[in-house]
Amino acid sequence: MRCHTCDTETDVRTRECPTCRTPVGSPTLYPGARVRPVRGVGRAASAAVAATAAFLLLTVAVQPVNALLAERAADSRDTETFLLTAGVLELSAALLYQVAFLVAIVLVIIWTWRARTNLDAFPGAGPTNSDGWAIAGWLVPFVNFVMPHRVVASIARESLWRLSTPVLVHVWWGSWLVFLFAERFSARSSAAEYEALPYPQTSTDFQAYVDHYLTATGEYLVPAVFCAVAGGSLIVLIQSISAAQTARIARSMPTGPILPGMTIAATADPAVPAAPDQAAAAAPGSAPSVGLGRASAVPDGPGGTI
């Protein structure tokens, strides 16, 4: 017989499908289990993650621009305009990045929780953590260095039918951790260097600003690269997992003919009047006969098979 989840030919003597590990004879979804859509929120989360990486790269691009402004200000001695323009550019890029970062975090948490709760409706899936960790794992201090990786790894294995965690999950999480520490270090280092700069009045002072912004470019570029790698990996994971779960949920609603061995949900049939000969044959106290609207091969109640 064929697996209801992946349509692989399975041997009834085996316990589970060799492709998707669904128990032989089990439906695609547990009857009555609630599933949540993940494709829409996955697309929104992917867009927010991409925007976060783009705006972080923008904060890097602002640094050489400010260095150029410092060189020009050294000739014109227009100190106030230089400081104001450089400050506005850095502040604008930082605000765009922070807003995109917060939106991405919220959407990724929502997507992670939905994808994790869907695993409970998949026969054969064996998530290693409760669905509450899909949210708390991102928020609890120190735990959030480990738990999001474990949750997403479980989602990826069960949704993509992998025996081991996909390499892309490790690439995503490793890049993300490097980004977090590198970004914190570079931000503190750059802020300390900027505080030590003199008020620009002479050519030497302006040159100190030029050197600072050029140094900051290199310092900011390292975490930005790791952020881009982590963001790209996460986007691929979100899209592939969302597509796999959406396809499995859609497959649970058969659109073709009902085949032997297929698990179906029993539906309530309207009352069908009995034929005259059946009505005459029925005696008080006797067992009711099978109505014309229901096939006797299908047992009453949900989960009947033919």
Automatic annotation (TrEMBL):
Residues 276-291 have a biased composition (Low complexity). InterPro entries: DUF4328. Residues 85-221 form the DUF4328 domain. Keywords: Membrane, Transmembrane, Transmembrane helix. The chain crosses the membrane at residues 44-70, 82-113, 160-182, 220-244. Pfam families: DUF4328. Residues 276-306 are annotated as: Disordered. It comes from the Bacteria. This is DUF4328 domain-containing protein. The lineage of its organism: Bacteria, Bacillati, Actinomycetota, Actinomycetes, Micromonosporales.
